[in-house]
Specification:
Largest sheet: 7 strands, mixed
Bound molecules: 5-O-phosphono-beta-D-ribofuranosylamine
Number of helices: 6
Number of strands: 7
Order of helices and strands: EHEHEHEHEHEEH
Strand content: 15-25%
Mean pLDDT: 96
Helix content: 25-40%
Oligomer: single chain
Radius of gyration: 16 Å
Strand order of the largest sheet: 3-2-1-4-5-6-7
Low-confidence stretches: none
Amino acid sequence: MRLGVLVSGTGTLLEALMADGLDVVLVAVDRPCRAAEVAAAAGVAVASVERDSFGADFDREAYTARVVEALRRAEVDLVAIAGFGTVLSPPFVDAFEGRVLNTHPSLLPAFPGWRAVEAALEAGAEVTGCTVHVVTAEVDAGPVLAQEAVSIEAGDTVESLHERIKTVERRLYPATIRQYVEARVA
Ligand code: GRF
């Protein structure tokens, strides 16, 4: 199962996927980031599909086509989103229907969106967590494959809480991808 990974950030989840032995054949990034260096250092091909704009003039359709093209060229079977800061338009999900997974740092459907960790803290929640799900056209709403709770401690900051959630994600995401692949192959 040839895996393509979409990332924008530090790439610690990407490192966990590679450490698990998943066959990562392409890492696509939307901006310069540590994740690209992680991939290159591991000898994995990097597609730098950099956004030309973060403003209102961003052409999401054209950008999505570039990402799909990079994934197709690498003959990717499955796509794992691991902290990717660009919402792709529906042709992406159409191109890889049922073959795109995401991990999100909350117990969906609670706290969807990019600021999920902040939102849980601001809401005064006692528990949050992470969710691995199949990606559908609606953001953070596809079928849930796995969830794990993380309790919010007194004095938690966005950083401390997110790091505890990511510790769980680094274990749960590769294990869930593996199960998903095995179930599909069977
Ligand atoms: C993870 O919490 C993921 O759920 C979120 O971005 C984070 C990526 O972490 N969407 P890292 O950059 O791989 O450390």
